[in-house]
Amino acid sequence: MSSISDGHVGRRADRQLLRRATYGTIAAAGVLDLILFAQVGGLPAAPTVQDGLLSMASAFLPGAPVRAPAARPTAAPPGAIPVATSHPS
Amino acid sequence: MTLAGTFAPATAPSPLWYVDRSAGEVSLLLLSAVVVVGVLRAAMPAARPLLVEGLHIRLTAVTCVFGVVHAAAAVIDPFAHLGPLDALVPFASAYRPLWLGLGVASGYLFAAAVLSSWPVRRLPRRVWSAVHRLMYLGWLCALVHALGTGSDSANRLFDLLDLTAVCGVLAAFLAYRVAEGINRKPALWGSLAAVAVLATLSILLWAEQGPMQPGWAKVSGTPAGFLHGG
Predict the structure, then answer these.
(1) Which value does ipTM take for this structure?
(2) For chain A, which residues make up each domain, given as ranges?
(3) What DSSP string describes A20-53?
(4) Which of B19, B20, B22, B27 to mutate to test the interface with A (most CBs of A within 10 A)?
(5) Where residue B67 falls among pLDDT bands split at 50, 70, 90?
């Protein structure tokens, strides 16, 4: 009797989980579609959304989004003395 | 209706062109999720069948919706001048024929898997399994179509999503399908695992050397008028 009841409860829990997963999938797919639409269409909000997503990705993949420096390196002035450094370890 | 040789580009992209591309990427991700859940279902048939089977079916339904939006937007959109025949006849389009054709082929394989299963299985078990397993090929066609058509291959967000899809499907296949089968038939499943890994690496390498490089639009078979006029 107990196992039948457990099975019934388990099926009901699975149905609820399935319903939530379905709605969640539809919502996630819709939102992602809008984000991608905004990005390929070059809409103003797109860069912010992309940066947000890439930031989230970088939380799981440290070092992944390597960015170019804001300014290009420049040559040392004439007569500058080179300085050698080494790692402390 | 546009087939090879009758191409005349529109002057600027329309919103439908963007709908086509965004819905296509979402379709690929959803299809990947369908494959992953299908792999889990096949490898562990006794594990919460109501939930896993239900999820597989519902994800398939959502994939159908986005796939139809993707194809319909491509046909209606005036920018690339694709027509119903381009969406129905593989490799006949004037616009990137090989890569577009792979998308059409993927659609047919997906339709075969769906129609042979829903609302009831219409084929003997062995035939149904064979048709269903063709979806591995269908998924590969969809992936190569997404990368090779190339409009968004240099887009980091699209690349990240594609990589997520590839890793998900490969991981599920190796961790569940191969792990379940390798004890029974080590040579067969070992070979399948090697083929899957090599195919994935080859596609990633090709994507990096081809679609992600500048000039791919011309190489991929974009009509000259499109390149210069739009």
Answers:
(1) 0.83
(2) 2-60
(3) HHHHHHHHHHHHHHHHHHHHHTT-TTHHHHHHHH
(4) B22
(5) very high
